[in-house]
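re: that chain from earlier
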Amino acid sequence: MKKQITFINLPSFAPEQELLAHWIKKCAIAYNGIIRIVQYNFVSEADMLNLNTSFLSHDTHTDIITFSYSETTEIEAEVFICTERLVENAKINRETADNELLRLISHAVLHCLGYGDKTIAEKKIMRTEEDNCISMFHVKPLQDV
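^ sequence. v structure.
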């Protein structure tokens, strides 16, 4: 059986893949979605610029591109995250690199579920929901007593 969530070139500072996959599924469920298949690709700045130019006709740098292949809440997507931009954004925002990684991963899930980020109002909502997803990652499960 094929994995629902795969990671290509996941940075060394990232949490364990199994932990990330569990959290991604939890985020989707919290927003009434379900993960069918998602591939997260961590790429260089040059590769990201090439993707942005080739597929979106944007001649600019970006930290994330999400290609959603479903118009329902059953998420099927390919996500490209620029590792250099991720690290740079973490520094700019005085954030840890692993938290910025969580932000970008959740950003993709939210995009697939219909959240936008074109307007100031949409960006504000997106940031709030990203923060909500990040907080779900940091909640420790209750231990059996």
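The CA atoms of residues 49 and 61 lie 5 Å apart.
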